[in-house]
Specification:
single chain; 247 residues; alpha/beta; Alpha-Beta Plaits; Oxidized Rhodanese, domain 1; 2 domains; five-stranded mixed beta sheet; four-stranded parallel beta sheet; 7 helices; 13 strands; 28% helix; globular; TRHO_N; Rhodanese-like_dom; oxidoreductase; EC 1.14.-.-; tRNA uridine(34) hydroxylase
Length: 247
């Protein structure tokens, strides 16, 4: 049996996020879905897996059902597959942030950097003077990254602020292009950098996962595998599960 996996997020005001937790959890259980969904006042984030019918039904409920009342109309969504169920249980958690940067002044609902589609990403990387920035944690970067990307060597996303303060300068680094797994960390990171006075901040829409899904391997600038936070561990081009190394 093949399972359908959905990685999703959206920054959207959810003042009632606490009330949503239990009915959302019950809905996922009723549909036979496992994984983790995070809820906060700023939106929803998570990855879940189930049968194709179950995942499709959940996506319909998220977008059109009474729980979110049409608020998830701009859901960033990537689908992949798994040969075995990649999660042990279903969890819905309440958080202060759906991705933790730890800076109250950073609000992706107010403004973020400029989105760059996977189709346009390679062209951007060829432009002179662009600082290419990987916003992920060090162990993720080790598994794979784009050619020429700066590794901030952080162990958690909250350390990104210190990296920017110590290593980057708005006066010198006038054009920054960044990327992350699914796009959500770049929403926060780009908003933070704009607040710090950086002039032009761009980010890969849909993240590495969308790039691997859309860009043919022969044209790809991606090297290695993309770490994912489930039991599949990593995905390759076409969002297929990475096989064991030949080394």
């Amino acid at each position: 049996m093949t399972y359908k996996v959905a990685a999703l997020y959206q920054f959207v005001p959810l003042p009632d996020f606490r009330e949503i937790k239990e009915p959302l959890h019950r809905l996922c259980l009723d549909l036979g879905i496992k994984g983790t969904l995070l809820l906060a006042h700023e939106g929803i984030n998570g990855t879940v897996a189930g049968t194709e019918e179950g995942i499709d039904a959940l996506m319909t409920e998220l977008r059109e059902g009474p729980l979110f009342r049409g608020r998830l109309d701009n859901l960033e969504l990537k689908f992949s597959s798994a040969a075995e169920m990649p999660f042990k249980r279903m969890k819905v958690r309440l958080k202060k942030e759906i991705v933790t940067l730890g800076d109250p002044q950073t609000d992706p609902l107010r403004r973020v950097g400029t989105y760059v589609s996977p189709a346009e990403w390679n062209r951007l990387l060829e432009e002179p003077g662009v600082v290419l920035l990987d916003t992920r944690n060090d162990f993720e970067v080790e598994m794979g990254t784009f050619e020429g990307a700066v590794d901030p060597r952080i162990k958690r996303f909250g350390e990104f602020k210190d990296f920017v303060k110590n290593e980057l300068d708005p006066a010198r680094h006038r054009k920054v292009a960044m990327f992350c797994t699914g796009g959500i960390r770049c929403e926060k990171a780009s908003a933070y950098m704009l607040n710090q006075g950086f002039e032009e901040v761009l980010h890969l829409k849909g993240g590495i996962l969308k790039y691997l899904e859309d860009v043919p391997e022969a044209e790809s600038r991606w090297k290695g595998e993309c770490f994912v936070f489930d039991e599949r561990v990593a995905l390759g081009h076409g969002l297929v599960e990475a096989g064991p190394s030949d080394e």
